[in-house]
Amino acid sequence: MLSAKMVFFASMCYSLPSIILYCLTMTVIFKYGSTFNSSFFVLYLYDSLMNLFTYTVGFYMMRLNSVTCEDCGFSFLYKNAADYFPMNFLTAMSYHMAYVQYSTTALISFNRMTVLWNYKFFEPLWKRFTWLIGFIVFALPFIDTHRCFYYKTDIQYNNETESYALVTPMPISDNFEYLIPAMVIITLISVGVNVHSLVTLRQLKSQKRNHVENNFIFITVITCFVQFLGCFLSVIRVMWANNPISGFLASILPFVSDSLTLVQPWLLFAFSTLMRKKMKEMIGIPSTKNGSVVIVRSVTN
After folding, report:
1. Distance in angstroms (rounded) separating the CA atoms of residues 212 and 204
2. Residues 176 and 238: beta-carbon distance below 8 Å
3. Residue 268 pLDDT > 50, yes or no?
4. CATH of region 4-283
């Protein structure tokens, strides 16, 4: 089994480039707002902010703490942190953001489906209300995750592993009591919406359909697979909470969470020629090709 340091450095190998790419894509969208003027990119910005926040919480709670010893340079972030910051908030956010991530993925799928239905009607609505909907998506999970604030989260130092851990007396089964059903339902909705959108795409003329459909299928398969895998592992972990395999699953879940959190900028970079072109332009790399973002508006307009 890999040591904590090896796991940490392995995660940093893909995390740092992903965070840099997040920042670059977001900057490009802001800088060239008239070019990336669609509800999809507004949702991308919202999703990016949520994912970066999710990663930051996970990095503090499950990554950096595992390689921070009592005399290490970053130990000040854990030694007396509970005196200055409510650790209960971080515990709540570690479950809260799972709701937000899964819901946002479903929201983006729903955006694609409705815009395909009727671009002229739905696109202005999405542009106008995306941030309001995003706020609701972020706020609603507090109906469940507020329970985490009733349990005091302590930061404990383990002499054997020479690392810190955030420990809460809240049973893991209570943490997942409502989260697991929500993850299953949201994942099924995402799959259903994406399948419906795929059927809708098949109604497009073949010349326009081939390129767009291939990209759509690829993105859908990645998103749905990561959602399904995360949901499956979470269910097994709760069902076998007292089984030794639970610890193994707990070590895998952060990587699955990282996949859902960090894959978006890579997909945008891979599938948007215009994003790559504008990114090169922004950082001063000459580009000779005229890129474009393939946007299928709808089958009715």
Report:
1. 10
2. yes
3. yes
4. 1.20.1070.10
